[in-house]
Amino acid sequence: MRASTALLAIPAWVWASSAAAQELPTTLGNFLREANPQERATIKDVAKRLYPDQREAIDDLIDNIEDEEKVQVDRSSFVEGWTGEGSIGGNYASGNTDEWNVSAALNIKRKGPRWEHRVEANVDFTDVDHQRTDERISAAYRVRRDFDKSPWFTFGALSYDHDRFQGIGNRYTESLGMGFELIDSDDDAEDDVDWDVYAGPAFRQTDFTDGSQINQIGVFIATDLKWEITDRLTLRQYAGTVLAKENKSFKSVTTLTNNLYGRLSARFDLTLETETDPPAGAEESDIYTRMSLVYDF
To answer: Most buried pick, 90, 129, 142, 202, via CB within 10 A?
Structure first.
């Protein structure tokens, strides 16, 4: 059964079920296993409205299914078990000015019972009257190791940044350290919030566009909050900083994602980036906004 078929079958399942019976149908597990994350959230919401006395049992069922999926990922080869999303946005205008911009992003992860691998990549380009006014490229890889029944975790990360108009030609950052789950929805399925904080030493190598170079040792601190406001609307807030003697940088990304249908969503991003000591001619802070379509896979 395909995930979309499972979602379309919900009305029939609802019609055939009696809310008064307050016993979960045996087919509920099949619907949840076949559904993608957005569809699973919808099925959970419908099931809890139909069976309010079984809310805890529904949460336990979802937790068990997710644990089974993690075990399957752990037993598969490294090239298997990846999930994620791709997004693209852009526009073109002509007349008094000839302007176009395009943005694209890819986020994939592989999550097992203990290890999580995450890869992210973003590109943004803008031309106005055949002059490049925005050129940003970033990529990152992060590995995380959870501990059994503990909110603590370890992490390691590698990242690359290119932002010509902020004066950064090429920047490489390596970090590792410890993190703590302030809020974990896996521990309380009634809670739709995940909130992590993490920190550790960082090593950074930067080639600026003015020809200067700097190698730094500093401290990396970050917080990552995800709030599923409804079964369709999700807010995510990331804030991270690298503190070093010569130069300090700060990045904040606020993302609001609204599921349109099935695997397709619309997203709004607001990004703030700050460098305390940028090259001559570059501003300390930049603010970017982006609208895009997102496809889950």
So the answer is: 202
Give the whole-angstrom CA distance, residue 271 versus residue 138: 13
Domains in the chain: boundaries:
3-75, 83-296
Q: In the CATH scheme, what is the homologous superfamily, with its name and number, of domain 83-296?
A: monomeric porin ompg (2.40.160.40)
CA dihedral 262, 263, 268, 270 (to 10 degrees): 140
DSSP H or E segment with residue 109? strand 99-111
Tens digits of residue pLDDT in 200-223 = 999 999 998 888 899 999 999 999
Q: Mind listing the pLDDT tens digit for each residue in 188-197?
A: 545 689 999 9
Residues 73/112, Cβ–Cβ less than 8 Å: yes
- Phi, psi for 129 (deg, rounded to 5): 50, 45
Neighbours of 148 (CB within 10 A): 6
